Input
Amino acid sequence: MSAEETDKALVARAQKGDRRAFDLLVLKYQHRVQRLIARYVRDPEQVFDLAQETFIKAYRALGRFRGDSAFYTWIYRIAVNTAKNQLASDARGGYTVSLNSGGSDESDEPMIEPEALRDTGSPDALAATEELKSAIDRAIADLPEDLRTALTLREMEGLSYDEIAAVMDCPIGTVRSRIFRAREAIEQSIQPLKGGD
Amino acid sequence: MKQRQASDSATVDEVVSDWWDDELSGDGRWADALLEHDDTVREKARLYELIGSRVRGEAAPSRDLLAGIDARLEGLPDEETPKAEVISLDAARERRRRLIPAAVAASLVAGLVAVGLGLSVNDPTGSDGGSMQATAPTANDRALMATLGDADLPESASPVGAGVPEATVAQVERASTGESRLPAWASGSVAPDSDPYVITHYRAAPSEFGSAVPEVRAAAFERQ
Output
């Protein structure tokens, strides 16, 4: 699969010491990893710490990653093991364990509400974030229907471009373009809040 | 998929969008384009993450995970930073070069032990496999013979089981005088119920263990 090839190329560069390549992998998978860990742990602080620990472990083990599996499979496995180890060592039992916690596939329904990923910044930062969120919500609502549908099918349902093309009965290139244009439109609408030009 | 030029900022944005959705066509060559526009990729990735969170109705985390990871990686000692040994053919060859002699040696030892056991168990008359059989008593044979009191042993008795309880210091002294002769089983005439493990040990062990060690070993292997 081509996405895996790009990941593998980034991994190969990270193995040679290119930290920027590893950073891109963190950027791409950080939220997915946090969502996965949030199935095991409720405390948002601990979710954050365990996600960080997951990537640190991955970085230290990167030299032993042979590419037999996809990078995301490997990083998810590390995340699951890190979360389980934390639960096992938590003598107080103060964290909620998923009854379905055996799976490592992030497509499973989360047993813990996404509130585990709640914002924990300062009041000012939270206010700014709230304003940004509202602006994004408005921008999504204002999107032309075809763009909003394509974006929603991708982000909400996790469909591939191919599947979205089948659902929307259009070429895959059109799906690609619609999703990109939707994101661009949202970015344009929040530019003032970002203090950009 | 249409070809895209990484130098074109508009198409770089498209590449990032495709990459974010795991829909980047082609091989790993896009990694170079992504790294070349590192800052743009970071900015877009954060925005796309935020958009995705809103579409899914999740609260996007406001803390910067990447910054925390970077700070911790800065403090890592050099030996914990990734090494590209898995993609180094030279390193793989070197590892193989070191492993092969060890594997050959292990196989040789295992083979010798297996042959020794086979001779002891399967050839009570010693009619074949003679190359592995002692034709003259070794120091260990002599010590064992003395320990077990060969003269008192019935032909079919297990040498260790029958002889060891009576083993004494006096018998060890008797061995040192060389008065005894080699027991029949030790020269190749092994009774069917003899303990092959003990027999093999006595016959294979180097003589430099002397005459005292066999007694210790015989006691250790004694059957209850």
User: Anything to note?
Assistant: Chain A touches chain B through 71 residues (CB under 8 Å). Chain A has two domains: 2-117, 123-194. Helices of chain A lie at 2-15, 19-37, 44-61, 71-89, 123-142, 145-155, 161-168, 172-194.
